[in-house]
Amino acid sequence: MNNIRSTVLGCGSYLPEKALSNAELATMVDTSDEWIVQRTGIENRHVAAEGEFTSDLAFEASKKALASAGIEASDLDAIIVATSTPDLTFPATAVILQEKLGLKSGFAFDVQAVCSGFVFALSTADAYIRSGMVNRVLVVGAETFSRILDWEDRTTCVLFGDGAGAVVLEGVEGTGSVSDRGVLTSHLRSDGAHKEKLYVDGGPSATQTTGHLRMEGREVFKHAVGMITDVITDAYAATGLSSDDLDWFIPHQANKRIIDASAKKLGIATEKVVTTVNQHGNTSAASIPLAIDAAVRDGRVKKGDLIMLEAMGGGFTWGSVLLRW
Ligand code: UT7
After folding, report:
1. CATH topology of domain 182-324
2. Which atom of ligand 1 sits closest to the CA of residue 198?
3. CB of 140 shorter than 6 A to ligand 1
4. Rounded distance between C-alpha atoms, residue 170 and residue 128, angstroms
5. Span 4-173: which CATH code?
6. Which of 121, 142, 243, 295 lies in disulfide reach of 80, CB 3.0 to 4.6 Å?
7. Ligand 1 contact via 114 beta carbon (within 6 Å)
8. What is the pTM of this model?
9. By C-alpha distance, which of 207, 217, 239, 162 is closest to 5?
10. Are the folds of 4-173 and 182-324 the same?
11. For a pLDDT cut of 90, what percent of the chain falls above it?
12. Atom of ligand 1 nearest to the CA of 114
């Protein structure tokens, strides 16, 4: 057994130019800034321009991630894009991104695990790297949820936004201990019994349409904190680490109340929690790399910091990744 660790070489993110405030939304549906902020912590979200696609958002975030990693696209062995809002039914958005980056070698594919997509993609890349199959992987979370929202449904349209984030991973020989840099452990779960609580009511095989997002918000909320804390507890059990050892908790950014309740249940101090949901709403698979990039750019996350990532979303799917930056 080797001790290869998937270490982060660099990261980047991108939000579309057009911002949509709670006040503007209140002119479109029966809602208010007060309700949205109090129930979710969201103040703003971004919406992709006409003709701007998920692959374009992914491209902008990827260019920044490659620059911060100090490598060229041609240095990559693989690209994995986590998205539930692909440009097209096929080919994969990752392949479209590969072409935009001018990469002629390696392989690219999408991972679809809705809001947990980035955690699933990161752990997939980590498994490929540790197997020795590849060495450098670009992992992207990119979404244009504005395209699948029912803009007349106030219970969902106020919650989501568009965006993208990316990290570059590289396999580096470690010692096998938890002091290594890189991904230390990943824990993924899903349970299709909950598929009707958060889904899109269209698709190529079922309806030959794209469909709209439908959610029983209260039901999702009810399960979220328990599922999130379960996979984080699994990460602690696998490593012997605890909430006290964490430098940063960077959760999926769906709702500030879910983030706060999870941190409280796990005994994670408030000052260790990275929250960006106020700025961009729930960007599904893009939310974790957006939050990572924000905390790296403002100097909070430093080399050697221990970071817990977690997400929960449609399916249900849920998972955690513990890594040392
Ligand atoms: O990434 C994972 C995916 N999703 C999530 O994590 C979302 C999980 N769920 C949630 O975040 C919360 O359940 C919501 C934010 C969606 C809703 O918060 P809530 O505290 O669970 O509210 P609720 O659904 O129980 O609705 C409370 C009231 C209802 O009115 P009545 O029945 O009490 O008269 C809703 O009709 O708020 C009403 N309401 C709104 N009012 C103003 C629902 N949406 C809105 C709105 N503006 N946008």
Report:
1. Peroxisomal Thiolase; Chain A, domain 1 (3.40.47)
2. 3
3. no
4. 11
5. 3.40.47.10
6. 121
7. no
8. 0.98
9. 239
10. yes
11. 99
12. 1
Ligand 1 centre from 153 Cα, in Å? 11
Task: Report the pLDDT value the prediction gives residue 2, as an integer from 0 to 100.
Answer: 85
- Per-residue model confidence (pLDDT) at position 143: 98
Please state whether the peptide bond connecting residue 289 to the residue before it is cis, i.e. omega within 30 degrees of 0.
Answer: no
pLDDT (mean) for 22-45: 98
Please confirm, yes or no, whether 278 is among the known catalytic residues.
no
Among residues 22, 46, 115, 187, which one is catalytic? 115
**Residue owning the nearest CA to atom 36 of ligand 1:** 155
Q: Where are the domains of the chain?
A: 4-173, 182-324
Give the helix ranges, DSSP H, for the chain. 22-25, 33-40, 54-69, 93-100, 117-131, 154-157, 217-239, 256-266, 277-280, 287-297
pLDDT for 153-212, tens place per residue? 999 999 999 999 999 999 999 999 999 999 999 999 999 999 999 999 999 999 999 999
Give yes or no for residue 254 CB within 6 A of ligand 1: yes
Q: Is the confidence at residue 128, as pLDDT, over 70?
A: yes
Q: 11, 252, 255, 280: which one is catalytic?
A: 252
Decide: helix, strand or coil at residue 203. Answer: coil
C-beta of 31 in contact with ligand 1 (< 6 A): yes
